[in-house]
Each structure stands twice: as structure tokens, then as C-alpha cells.
Design brief:
Elements: H1 2-43, H2 45-54, E1 57-62, E2 69-70, E3 76-89, H3 90-93, H4 96-104, H5 111-123, E4 129-133, H6 138-146, E5 154-163, H7 171-174, E6 177-179, H8 182-186, E7 201-203, H9 206-210, H10 212-216, E8 220-226, E9 232-239, E10 247-249, H11 253-263, E11 268-274, E12 280-286, H12 292-296, H13 300-307, H14 330-340, E13 349-351, E14 354-357, E15 360-363, E16 371-373, H15 375-380, H16 384-394, H17 396-405, H18 427-434, H19 440-447, H20 457-469, E17 478-481, E18 484-485, H21 498-513, E19 532-538, H22 545-550, E20 565-572, E21 579-585, H23 591-607, H24 623-631
Parallel strand pairs: 2-10
Antiparallel strand pairs: 1-8, 2-3, 3-4, 3-5, 6-7, 8-9, 10-17, 11-12, 11-21, 13-16, 14-15, 17-18, 19-20, 20-21
């Protein structure tokens, strides 16, 4: 009995111990839970409230305002205009197609429009806004705002779009912007998130693309609150981005407009350059095109009209075009021979109208020949035989070396698209390109700017500026970025003896100002503005022996695309050069008759105030004709300097 009682007491004590242990464990567990709840509800309350807030807060990028582009005097070339548009965000809209069809009852939307938006929405993240309609009228934008409750995810916006107020004048220089393509993204290793926003626009050609990073700026951000249905309730805050830097070019918009108008409907190019600073004052290619068409989405019809035009309006002939420079190259051959000491300015060569070597006959343009010719007369009357002869004495390698010193055969570093290097051939070049030896005939052809030699109008303008100044002038297109003026480095000496350059310049003076000079009709009679220059005519077809025997067919009797190219280069004033100009007119015929008058007009426009060159600078017999021509030019009225950025 006693054992049984003791066993009962022991069991009771064990039960009590278990109960106490379980009670203690439960108390501890509740204490831990209570502490955790207090931690979550009190200590971490703010953090979890923020997380809950962020579940209904979207962060979106704010595209920056693109930097504007101005001419040297502050006139607007590329700016930004206010643009009304509607966007849709897939994560806020839910059924995108259903929302779009309701939107189509409010504003004009076609089936292709809806399909395009659906395709874009599938391609991009759900939080990325897709542009549904762009460049809308204010009335349509108002209708969208009024119907907002039935259009979840749809947002009316006021943005900025690129606009080019001088359209055709600067199309080839400034270029245009367009939506970012997959090809654009593939070229960039770590693309800016901005570039992934549908319809975000970047530079495609010209200054717009080469200075894209400068012009684009940096994105801002905005936080917006949305409700359970994804509708935007309010904008909580925003951080504005950094606008792109403005750029000021060296070009004078009024001179550019004059040159573009002066080229007219010709397939041509012209470059005017400051001989001292290298500033490009005008650089034009004709015909041109309206870059605004590309910004707004060019139609198939308009694009076909541009691509099917045999005058190639989309090509920038001023920097992309590579032409045989013809007789404008003769200064290069002359300087090479003078520097090598194989001739002096007084050295005379007999021209019977042809030059024979290696059993071949090379003809002068003047069938009867020029007789005895020295350097000055060889330039003024453009005798080919003189250059055939001296080229054989000096050799192609020294001619090519001089050509490169004068800026030929190299790519000049400007923020423009597809700048050509041209071709300044020598023996090594031909061996590398064709695996052939250089021949005597190659040298003869090269001596007068034919054969393998190719140069752009930009290169010819640089060559002329270097001959005029005696310095290695570098062309410059950008004058300032933001508020920072870019320095103008002093051009180093060309390294050619000044007396040799003066001899060549004297020959260029004779071209214009001596009665027998090939460019005499293009003279300037104002003593303070006297011009020097050189004509050139480059063949684009071979002339057979039979045709030469019966008489070479004149250009006006040939189809347009088989006529010679017309070239002319010039600088002025002769005694103190300030501007150099080069003009190439494709299939224009004679350099002196077609390109020469344009060079004179451009030089006068650069050197004198006012919208038109002064009639008093022309020979009296030409003034009536020039007045008719100049006053008929379709010059535009260019707005004065813009002093404030166009911000919306």
C-alpha cells in the first residue's frame, strides 16, 4: 500500500513537472510570437508601409529635352516643338486590345494602328509606355482626357518633337532623328535605358547622329501612384533630367541659304571655308530634301521620289561625292615639280596639242596646242601637255605626297556622315589595290586630275584654302558646345616655300584676271575683292580615236549622265585671302561656264553684307543679267538669333 501511495505521488510530481515544462514552453513560444508581432507591427511598421506603398507606385523615365542646333550667329537650325500624343501602358491597361478599340471610338485609329501598338506592347516590358497616336490636334487630346475613366492605361501627354525650320538648307549637314531601331541597339554595347522606350528618337545621319551623346541629355524620373486597377491617381514626385547641350555650328544660315538657292536644280555641291580659321561657312548638296518628313514618318511615295531621282537628293555630294578633280588638280602637280626642283616658274614646255610617250598619244584640250608655255600660262589657259611633261619629270610619288599635304586623299574629321577619303594614288597604292605596277600613262592621267585621282568638294575647298594661306588649314564645323566655345588652333605652316606658292597663286590670278584666262568671264572688278581660281572639267566617258578625228561631241549633244563634270575652285581677296570656295556640278559641262559663276557669286556673298552680292562687283556688261538672276533666287526670310531655348 505504501509503495502504491509513493508511486502515485511520484506520478503526480512527474505530471506537474511536464505541465510546468509544457506551460513554460508555450509561454516562451507566445512571448517569441508576441515579440515578433511587435517587431513587425511597431518596429518595422514604416518599412512595411513603404513596401506596401511601392506596390502601387510606378517609376517612369522622363525623356530629356534634346539639345538644339544653331548657326554661327545663333539662328535656329534644329529645335523642338510641342507635340500632343497618347500613350498606353500594358500593365495598367489590362486588356490592351479592348482598351484600344474603345479609344478608336474617341480618336481616329485604324486597324494597322491597333496592330502596330499590339505588336509593340508584346515586344516590350509591360511597364513601358507605347505611343498610340502622335502629333495630335488639341481637340483630340481633350477627348481622350474627358474619356479617361473608360480608358485604363491610356495617358494623354505633351512632349517635344524635333523640327527643322530651315528644312532643305541643312538636311545634309544636320541630318535628322528617327525612332531607335534594333540595328541601332545592336551597335551599342551598353545602351542607355532611354533608347528602349518605344518611338524614342535618336540621330540617324549628320550632326544629329555624330553628336548624339551631346545632344541627347540624361533622363529624369517620375513616381506615380496607381490604384488597384492600374489607373494613375497622381504624380508623387519627379526628378527632371539634364537637357542635352546646344550646339552652334560654324555655318552662316543666310550664306547657306544663298548657296543652296544658287545651286538650284543642278546635281551639285559647294563648300565655302574661312581660309584663316578653317570654319565652314557653307556646305551644300543639291538637290536636297526635307528632313521633317523623316521625323514624322516618311510615306512610301515620298521616299520613292527621293530614291528614284537620278540627281540623288539623299546623297551628301559635298563630302560623300568623289570626283576626278580635273584641271583643279594642276596646282598640286605644279607645286610638286617646283619643290622637287625639276622646273622653275620660267621653265617653258612646248605644246603642239598632244604628248607622245611609250607609243601612245595623250591630247591637250586645245587641239591646235598652246605653243611654248610657262607655269603661269599653263594655269591660266589650262594647258594639259605642260603637266604631262612635268609629271614625267617629278614622278607620281612626289605628286601624291604634295596632294596629301594639300588635304587630298584623306578623311577630314567632321561630324557628318560617310565622309570620303577620296583617292590620292601612288605606286604603292596601285600595287596594293590592283597588284599591278604603276605605268607612265597612269602618271600622265593623274597629272591633270584624271585616272585614279578622286576628290570631294570638301577636299578641293581645303586644298584651295591651303594654297591661298600657305598653312595646313583644318576644316571646322562646330563652333561651340553648350556654353563652351571650342578653341581655334592656329594652322601650322604647310611646309612649302612661300615663293613657290606665290608662283602658283599668280597663275590662279591669271586664270580669272587675264583676258586669255579660262575663267576671265568670272572676274570680280571690285579691287578689294579680286578673285583667283582654277577651272576644271573632268571626263566621265572615253573619247575614241575616231570621235577625236571627226570632232569631239559637245556636252549639250550628249545624254545628261554622259556629260563632263564641271568644277571650279577659287579664293579671295587675292592679296589677303579670307575665303575659299569649291563647286562641282555633276555632268554640268564646262567648269568655267557652269561652276565658275557659282564660285564667284558665293565668294561675293561671303565677303559682302546683305542678302545678295553687290552688282558693282560684276563687270558692267554682266550686271543686267546678274540682277535678273540674283533677284530671282528663292531666298527665305531667316528668323533672327534665338536667345532662349525652346522648352515646353
Amino acid at each position: 500500500m505504501r509503495r502504491s501511495a509513493r508511486d502515485s505521488e511520484d506520478s503526480a510530481r512527474k505530471v506537474n513537472r511536464r505541465a510546468l515544462f509544457l506551460g513554460g514552453a508555450m509561454t516562451a513560444m507566445f512571448a517569441v510570437l508576441g515579440a515578433r508581432m511587435r517587431y513587425l507591427q511597431v518596429d518595422q511598421a514604416d518599412e512595411f508601409k513603404l513596401l506596401a506603398e511601392e506596390n502601387r507606385i510606378n517609376i517612369r523615365l522622363i525623356p530629356p529635352t534634346r539639345g538644339q542646333i544653331f548657326d554661327r550667329n545663333g539662328r535656329l537650325i534644329a529645335g523642338n516643338e510641342q507635340n500632343y500624343r497618347v500613350v498606353i501602358t500594358r500593365e495598367d491597361a489590362g486588356d490592351v486590345e479592348a482598351v484600344l478599340r474603345r479609344l478608336a471610338d474617341v480618336i481616329p485609329l485604324t486597324e494597322p494602328d491597333i496592330e502596330r501598338v499590339m505588336t509593340e506592347a508584346r515586344r516590350h516590358s509591360p511597364f513601358v509606355p507605347i505611343i498610340v497616336a502622335d502629333r495630335m490636334a488639341w481637340d483630340d487630346l481633350s477627348k481622350v482626357a474627358i474619356n479617361a475613366p473608360s480608358l485604363p492605361g491610356v495617358t494623354p501627354e505633351v512632349g517635344l518633337s524635333r523640327a527643322y525650320p530651315l528644312d532643305t538648307d541643312f538636311a545634309h549637314v544636320v541630318g535628322y532623328v528617327g525612332p531607335v531601331s534594333e540595328n541601332d541597339l545592336a551597335k551599342i554595347e551598353d545602351p542607355d535605358p532611354l533608347l528602349k522606350i518605344p518611338e524614342f528618337q535618336i540621330g540617324k545621319i549628320g550632326v544629329e547622329t555624330w553628336m548624339e551623346d551631346t545632344l541627347r541629355g540624361k533622363a529624369g524620373t517620375k513616381r506615380i501612384e496607381v490604384n488597384a486597377y492600374g489607373r494613375m491617381m497622381r504624380e508623387i514626385d519627379r526628378v527632371e533630367g539634364d537637357a542635352g547641350d546646344d550646339i552652334r555650328l560654324t555655318i552662316d544660315a543666310e550664306i547657306q541659304d544663298f548657296v543652296q538657292a544658287r545651286l538650284g536644280a543642278e546635281s551639285a555641291a559647294a563648300v565655302a571655308i574661312d581660309v584663316i580659321t578653317g570654319d565652314i561657312l557653307a556646305i551644300c548638296s543639291s538637290p536636297s530634301f526635307d528632313p521633317n518628313l523623316f521625323v514624322r514618318g516618311i510615306s512610301f511615295k515620298d521616299y520613292a521620289a527621293l530614291t528614284e531621282n537620278d540627281h540623288r537628293p539623299l546623297a551628301n555630294k559635298a563630302v560623300q561625292g568623289a570626283y576626278p578633280p580635273g584641271s583643279t588638280f594642276k596646282m598640286v602637280t605644279a607645286l610638286a615639280a617646283l619643290e622637287a626642283g625639276v622646273i622653275t616658274p620660267e621653265t617653258a614646255v612646248y605644246c603642239p596639242g598632244h604628248y607622245e610617250t611609250g607609243g601612245r598619244r595623250f591630247h591637250c584640250w586645245k587641239r591646235g596646242g598652246h605653243g611654248m608655255v610657262s607655269l603661269s600660262r599653263s594655269l591660266s589657259e589650262s594647258c594639259d601637255v605642260y603637266y604631262y611633261d612635268i609629271a614625267q619629270r617629278v614622278g607620281i610619288d612626289k605628286i601624291a605626297e604634295m596632294g596629301r599635304r594639300l588635304g587630298l586623299g584623306m578623311r577630314h574629321d567632321l561630324p557628318m556622315s560617310a565622309i570620303t577619303e577620296g583617292i590620292m594614288p601612288d605606286k604603292a597604292w596601285k600595287r596594293q589595290r590592283y597588284e599591278q605596277d604603276w605605268r607612265i600613262g597612269d602618271t600622265i592621267n593623274a597629272s591633270i586630275g584624271q585616272g585614279y585621282v578622286l576628290a570631294s568638294p570638301l577636299q578641293l575647298a581645303v586644298m584651295t584654302a591651303r594654297v591661298a594661306s600657305g598653312r595646313a588649314v583644318q576644316p571646322r564645323l562646330v563652333r561651340s558646345v553648350g556654353d563652351t566655345e571650342l578653341p581655334v588652333p592656329e594652322a601650322p605652316p604647310l611646309g612649302v616655300d612661300g615663293s613657290l606658292l606665290r608662283s602658283v597663286r599668280q597663275g590662279m590670278y591669271a586664270v580669272i584676271n587675264e583676258r586669255r584666262g579660262t575663267g576671265h568671264t568670272n572676274r570680280i572688278v571690285d579691287p578689294a575683292l579680286v578673285m583667283a581660281g582654277k577651272s576644271g572639267t573632268s571626263q566621265v566617258r572615253n573619247i575614241s580615236a575616231a570621235e577625236r578625228a571627226r570632232g569631239v561631241i559637245s556636252n549639250d549633244q550628249l545624254p545628261w549622265n554622259r556629260r563632263d563634270h564641271a568644277l571650279f575652285v577659287g579664293f579671295a581677296p587675292f592679296d589677303a585671302p579670307r575665303v575659299a570656295v569649291a563647286v562641282v556640278v555633276e555632268h554640268g559641262g564646262g567648269g568655267s561656264s557652269v561652276a565658275g559663276p557659282i564660285v564667284r557669286d558665293v565668294i561675293l556673298r561671303c565677303l559682302t553684307p546683305g542678302p545678295l552680292p553687290p552688282l558693282s562687283a560684276y563687270p558692267e556688261s554682266q550686271r543686267a543679267r546678274m540682277e535678273t538672276l540674283l533677284t530671282s533666287l528663292p531666298l527665305r526670310k531667316i528668323e533672327p538669333e534665338v536667345t532662349a531655348r525652346s522648352r515646353a
